[in-house]
Amino acid sequence: MIPTIRLDNDTFQEIFEKARKRIPLLFPEWTNFNDNDSGIALLELFAWLKEAQDFHLDQIGLKNEAVYLKLLGLRRKEICPAKAVVSCYPVKEETTLEADTSFYAGDIPFLAKERADLYAGKLQKVVTGSKRSSDHFTERIWNEEDVSWRLPIFSERPEIENFIELDFAPGLMGGKLYGFYFKLFEDPNMKRNPVSSEFEPFVGIRAECLQEEINESAPAVWQDCEIERDDTYAFLYSGILRIRIPGALEGKRMRKLRFVFSEGEYDAAPILSQIYLNPVELLQKERITEQLLGEGTGFPGQSFSLDIKGVIPDEVEIEAEDPENPGSFEDWVRVEDFAASGPEDRHFTVEEQGNICFGDGFHGLAPEGWIKLKGLCRTEGIHGNVKKGRIHPENEDVFKAWNFEDVTGGADAESAQSCFARFGAELAQQYSAVTEKDYEKLVTQTPGLLIERAKIVKTDWERNRVIAAVKPWSRDKCPGLSRIYRSNILSFMEKRCLLGTEFKVVEPEYIKIRIYGDLELAAWYRDMEKYLKEKIQEYFKEFCSDFGSPILHSGLYGFIDGMQGVGRIRSLTIDAAGQGIRRNINGDVFLPPEGLAVLEQIQLSVSYVG
């Protein structure tokens, strides 16, 4: 965090005393320090002047703060509209929802972000299977009110040509663009990193549709559909999928739509929780149309008040009359400030209070003639973050709608103080790798991946070589590191390593551990053997789960021996199998740097005494 520097710390008396104490050092002949001395009076004058200057230098106004933020490469966040997704269902008749269609949550307005075709019908059932087999894995009747689904989209172990099939009644119309929101079950133990522009997708899907049966004797022919939008990244995340039914099928209905797993390899099987029909993205804002602001005088520093709260600066459009061509209007451009504006630049700024300001003739042209507001958008900011189930369309005659999740993203304009605090927080974030800890932290943040842990296992700083062992998250005990995982990690780290650094990724060396023990247990403890195995597993998870962690015989022995109900340990053996392990005479097992211990078996022979 950058320290706050105060310039106005010293009082007048402190400044004067510091200066007077330096007199004997600088001019020993000066011996009269009383108030009647003219030199002392002059010293008091300059002490007062310094105290006044310090006070003024310590006062930072809004314009000063804006310049400082600009020097730091920062920009205050402006008021931001909340974002929502609503499901338009049920729909009475197929219709096209135009962009900027109005929705409301009480008195709070929302606008549709884009155009959408709304399907009027019902999703009857969901089927999963494989194109390589006629057998279906699962078949479920769809219920829009059931939010407890746990349906593997492509089976529990997805393979190429597996599919998920949606059965509609009536069918989807050819040539239309339909949307579906797939909500996936999120395992709390599985945290996938957010996607960024650096993410290279490692799985792919394609869409196919099947026409309603016309001739029962004719074979069913599946036709390819175009996936125009996929926020799920092939079912890695919850999100919207938009599918265009081929235009060649216009006027015909498709009773089935399916998504086929076409390429790559899933790191974790996607689990379907719910499907929402006709998703529409909304922005919490209200559009205000053209109005006359006033007449420009040509004088510098003109300002016009909009008298509107929550104006979104980027969405303000202004035009002003050309004084040389009366009646002809020209568009003006909104800028953050006039620092880079020239005398002929038609620029304006929007203040937080909603005022429209123009330049002084040197920095930004001063308008002369009539000024019109072509349009703007306003928002409620943070107050637009309403709860789920509150949004409805302006007209419910054709369709109903509801937001199945809380609305988020709405924020008020950021203060300068908050912006400086954000700068301090961003300074503390890791953007490049220098130390081993830096490398390990950044590798686990690779976009779009599930990474359980990473460890630098070998370094050669003289030659700038670094090798990291990475274990991806998986339900398997010993997951490998796929080619696409390596590619994503290397691509992400390439921009974060020091120049000239050779960075490599290796997969873990799994060391299989077996525990053999012969114990005497107290007779009055029930189910002690099962309890012991659970505790040993917890011990391994806490003390032996990191890369290269040694498995100490004495540590495990002491842990078991100290448990209540264990009378005596007759024998305890740790057996290990894998590459690069070492043992000593004490029975300890030492793993290689990239080694990970996998507890494969616990075999206990117990006898009860007492």
Give structural notes.
The chain is α+β, with helices and mostly antiparallel strands and 610 residues long. The strands form seven sheets. A ten-stranded antiparallel beta sheet has the order 7-6-9-14-11-12-13-10-15-8, with no helix packed on it. Strands 17, 18, 19, 20, 21, 22, 23 and 24 form an eight-stranded mixed beta sheet that branches. Strands 25-3-4-16-1-26 form a six-stranded antiparallel beta sheet, with no helix packed on it. Strand 12 and strand 13 form a beta hairpin. Helix 1 crosses helix 3 (38-57). The model has no long low-confidence stretch (mean pLDDT 89).
Summarize the structure.
Strand 32 (582-583) and strand 33 form a beta hairpin. The chain starts with 11 loop residues before the first helix and ends with a strand.
What attributes characterize this protein structure?
610 residues, alpha+beta, 6 domains, 10-stranded antiparallel sheet, 8-stranded mixed sheet, 34 strands, flat
Tell me the layout of helices and strands.
Layout lengths: L11 H10 L1 H4 L11 H20 L4 H10 L11 E9 L3 E3 L4 E4 L2 E5 L3 E3 L3 E9 L5 E6 L9 E2 L9 E12 L3 E8 L18 E9 L10 E9 L8 E6 L8 E12 L6 E7 L1 E5 L2 E3 L2 E7 L5 E3 L11 E6 L2 E10 L12 E4 L4 E4 L9 E11 L13 E2 L5 E5 L12 H13 L7 H8 L7 E10 L4 E8 L10 H12 L7 E5 L2 E14 L5 H16 L9 H9 L4 E12 L4 E2 L5 E2 L4 E15 L1
Parallel strand pairs: 21-22, 28-29, 30-34
Antiparallel strand pairs: 1-16, 1-26, 2-5, 3-4, 3-25, 4-16, 6-7, 6-9, 8-15, 9-14, 10-13, 10-15, 11-12, 11-14, 12-13, 17-24, 18-24, 19-23, 20-21, 20-24, 22-23, 27-28, 30-31, 32-33
Mean of residue pLDDT?
89
Largest sheet: 10 strands, antiparallel
**Given the structure, what is the number of helices?**
9
Q: What's the end-to-end separation, in Å?
A: 64 Å
Tell me the structural class. Answer: alpha+beta
| Radius of gyration, CA atoms, in whole angstroms | 35 Å
Shape summary: flat
Low-confidence stretches: none
Number of strands: 34
